[in-house]
Amino acid sequence: MMSKKLLVDVDCGVDDAQAIMIALAAPNVELLGITCVHGNTTVENVCKNTLRVLQACNRLEIPVFKGAAKPILGNSINAGNFHGQDGLGDAPDPNAPSLDMVQKEDAVSALIRIINQNPGEVTLVATAPLTNLALAVRLDPSLPSKLRGLYIMGGNTESRGNTTVCGEFNFTADPEAAYIVLNDYQCPTYLACWEFTCYSKLSWEFCDAWLAQDTDKARFMAQIFRHSIKASQSEHFEKEFVAGTGFISCDSYAFAAAIDDSFVKESDHYPVSVELTGTHTRGMMIVDTAGFMNKAHKAFIMKKVDMEKFERMMMAALK
Amino acid sequence: MMSKKLLVDVDCGVDDAQAIMIALAAPNVELLGITCVHGNTTVENVCKNTLRVLQACNRLEIPVFKGAAKPILGNSINAGNFHGQDGLGDAPDPNAPSLDMVQKEDAVSALIRIINQNPGEVTLVATAPLTNLALAVRLDPSLPSKLRGLYIMGGNTESRGNTTVCGEFNFTADPEAAYIVLNDYQCPTYLACWEFTCYSKLSWEFCDAWLAQDTDKARFMAQIFRHSIKASQSEHFEKEFVAGTGFISCDSYAFAAAIDDSFVKESDHYPVSVELTGTHTRGMMIVDTAGFMNKAHKAFIMKKVDMEKFERMMMAALK
Amino acid sequence: MMSKKLLVDVDCGVDDAQAIMIALAAPNVELLGITCVHGNTTVENVCKNTLRVLQACNRLEIPVFKGAAKPILGNSINAGNFHGQDGLGDAPDPNAPSLDMVQKEDAVSALIRIINQNPGEVTLVATAPLTNLALAVRLDPSLPSKLRGLYIMGGNTESRGNTTVCGEFNFTADPEAAYIVLNDYQCPTYLACWEFTCYSKLSWEFCDAWLAQDTDKARFMAQIFRHSIKASQSEHFEKEFVAGTGFISCDSYAFAAAIDDSFVKESDHYPVSVELTGTHTRGMMIVDTAGFMNKAHKAFIMKKVDMEKFERMMMAALK
Amino acid sequence: MMSKKLLVDVDCGVDDAQAIMIALAAPNVELLGITCVHGNTTVENVCKNTLRVLQACNRLEIPVFKGAAKPILGNSINAGNFHGQDGLGDAPDPNAPSLDMVQKEDAVSALIRIINQNPGEVTLVATAPLTNLALAVRLDPSLPSKLRGLYIMGGNTESRGNTTVCGEFNFTADPEAAYIVLNDYQCPTYLACWEFTCYSKLSWEFCDAWLAQDTDKARFMAQIFRHSIKASQSEHFEKEFVAGTGFISCDSYAFAAAIDDSFVKESDHYPVSVELTGTHTRGMMIVDTAGFMNKAHKAFIMKKVDMEKFERMMMAALK
Ligand SMILES: [Ca+2]
Ligand SMILES: [Ca+2]
Ligand SMILES: [Ca+2]
Ligand SMILES: [Ca+2]
């Protein structure tokens, strides 16, 4: 497997942390930088959480950039409390790195600069509201054509929402950004959508074994993950899961697909967009299976992935 | 099985015809009347088609009522050409009954009158845009409380559309009516949605055997069905079907469920509504699996039905 | 002046009462009936208020019909408290007529019957949410062609709202009904819009003289009007008036125009419609001054009226 | 009068050109730069047009920056042909400056840099779709607090549109950007809206005298203005003007107000926003006269300006 240059955009909740740790453990990955954006928590918390994850993995040399604090229109939705108020399970961390370690360059400028410095080589992975990516393409319309590929966790395919009745969190938190990215990034695009991640869940037994590894990384994960595990098993959140509760590390699927081209076993290939104006459907992803939209560009929508490989990548992440 | 009083509202295309013929053949059904509405074709054609079906079955004593010519807001969508321009495959019928046989009373008044005359006894089946039902409940808000049950073919559960990218025909042809009916008919409500009918399709082999019966009814059906069979197998329509092409008699599932309480083997029970304002999702059914809408009334959404029973009812319809 | 057959649809608040009393006092008017609809208060209160007005004028022989209790979509807005909770200033009326005096026939059926019995002769005046009119035209599409004219109080021309930021009460209380009426009633249509009624206000001095008349009608009016006068002069409502507070009897302008063809001195003649989907503009009237909508039918939008005549009609109403 | 630092954002059509020439002629103005954006024509044409105006005034030392080529969502509307295809009347200009003279720095970065380098001193004038300003505030949320003031030509106050039935061009060409700017720029904000510019039009007689000045600037203006003058007097465009045709240099009012604090004689002071989701009203400005929106920040909406001063500034612009 050739080495891959990854640039990742996160709103570092617990599953972003898991996904980043997969990337840090992957032998073939060069992580060019991590851009942060509002989402699970404030963008300042996201920066801090990202630095904590890098610290836990002894990789603080990877540059972290602060991006948009608000969605395109400026109206933040409540992120709920699935990952805790601070996005990482509200676990105390007295030795957290200082925000001084965040780069002076802002995230959108960094995205534009890094992609232009590595034309055709960067795989962009976004597991957060897509505000940074949307702003970047409006400032530099040539950006998508310079990407190797774009991997997104977000959206939904069967109108099942986890944030509103039909809206998945990352898309609903900034519908305009999702619309811009799905319409303007005409590069190879791979989507790990909400229902897919539910159908591809891991067992709680795997989770136990995963966290039981005798490593600092596993102990870090156990600490930040406690809150979400409890939430996953609460009556309130159980109804949101499409096929029953379980260990669903949403963002990790997008990272795994970006890291390993053979990870995705089956996908649909359809034009996609985002509903912006619905009363119940604002933020819902639109999948045009029958060609009603007359749109040329199509995205790959993940349907089946190599779950054994996924478990191996997850295990390695905490080694 | 106790005898059932059915009142049915149709836009008599070919599948409405099939469904009506199932009801006419059912031993336990008393068909109180057929109300007609715009949809697959003009309401005048719908009346004529309904009379033709009754004639083919020697049941012209059943009263037929003409209802709304346009959806609530007045803007008709194009019905496409799946069932032919006239809704019954554009098959010549020189002996079609005259429109003089349609009742003088309008459909909405008839719905209100018949239901009030049979309080608690009428099972209402609607396999068309829901304009008549919506007008009736606004004129007589007590109507739903006097129904035994309401069976609807319409809407969708996975955002798969057959008329717009996310819109099923009956709901999209009059989204306001569908909204009114799903919100104001707080009686036991059973939905045969688009994806369900696709997943529950019959085989073309069954269709061949079905039409090969040596009866006048089978010959009538073969004639009016020819156009839709061909359309079903065209590249254009194939993409609209959710799980591949096949013999999908949408409206018949709603009738079968209304006729036989044991027909539905498995159903979901969720609050439902209709999106009215979306750019891509106007007319889409909303299924509130996780309780975001704080709505008390829930509909039964059919998931699995007794397909052997279905085949028997279909076969009997052409006997 | 020839005698005119008026049919009026009201949500009998205080200004509806004033308008009805103008019609009752007009020598050339035959009032065929009064249809009631939800709006300022419940449709039951509207029926009761209408009967009280007729009683105060000794005209209880005029038939009163009960219509829609809810707007087309079924979601009532709060009517505020401008006319009091009961719509007539919450003034005690121990001798109010019983609701038994309301006709058995419902309002929509009555509208259809009366207009069909008097083809080309009925002037319809609507000073309430347009639910009844919308239902009537969907049941009988020929209705508008049989009207002499339609006079409406409702809508706005400069995006000034009194109920929402851009929404006038009668239109915002049932936007779908207003849309249906403005699009389907292709008869001569005259609109007394919110800003026009504000620009055409009477002085409080006139109001004092008006109420000071030594008649039972004036005493009745003084009693039911007290609440609204106080509200008009409150800080809360003052901001809603377009050109300063004053005595604005909105509904009376539509009645005056219907009664006397020479009342309207100047009007615009433009296609009009209603916004249904805006976040801030749902219910706002759309005036197509420049021909963007390609719509043939145009409404007369009142701009200047004969204020001396208006004062005379008002004075006569309480004589 | 103290010297003023102006930064201006244009889509250099003919009225932008007139406005820029007013600023260049004003003795107290320091023009820090001109940022260009899509609108009347492509952003490339806008850059070229801006350079041509500067060349006509011998001021090519003023830096010109290229900004967004598309609105926030990416869907351009047709700019019509009021100012000609090239935005400056399609008048031949063989000596037009080369696009090489456009700065390397992009417009949004320039806006952020210049305002941060001159905290509290920059008066920003925007007479185009507000895409650049919207992107800038999302990248640097502190920007508005560092402005002396913001002057915008755009929006409407009485629901009169010149691009759609209720939409003014600059706002309708990028409703999301207008929304962002009106909500996020909480600095002193002054709006020259469409109806105001129509009510404040100059006479064609003034225009004749203005263009008859014996100067190169007047000859340049006569050449680029010919197309728009003819369009203004065409039947098609006449209907769009609110109070009859005339010489309406829309963008010049915003510039004049920015240049001279005593120019605005009367203004309203209300919260404003933009409708994003209406069928007919998308892009319409919302003026909250009665406090329905619970919004603290208010904009100054120009109502009356010093027309003598305006004529003097216009005359000076071509001297
Ligand atoms: Ca995430
Ligand atoms: Ca049907
Ligand atoms: Ca009223
Ligand atoms: Ca401009």
Automatic annotation (TrEMBL), chains A, B, C, D:
Signal peptide: none
Molecular function (Gene Ontology), one example: hydrolase activity, hydrolyzing N-glycosyl compounds
Residues of the Inosine/uridine-preferring nucleoside hydrolase domain: 7-311
Annotated InterPro entries: Inosine/uridine_hydrolase_dom (IPR001910), IUN_hydrolase (IPR052775), Ribo_hydro-like (IPR036452)
Pfam families in alphabetical order: IU_nuc_hydro
Entries under CDD domains matching the protein: nuc_hydro_CeIAG
Family, similarity comment: Belongs to the IUNH family.
Stored PANTHER family: SI:CH211-201H21.5, SI:CH211-201H21.5-RELATED
Protein name in UniProt: Inosine/uridine-preferring nucleoside hydrolase domain-containing protein
Organism: Mola mola (Ocean sunfish)
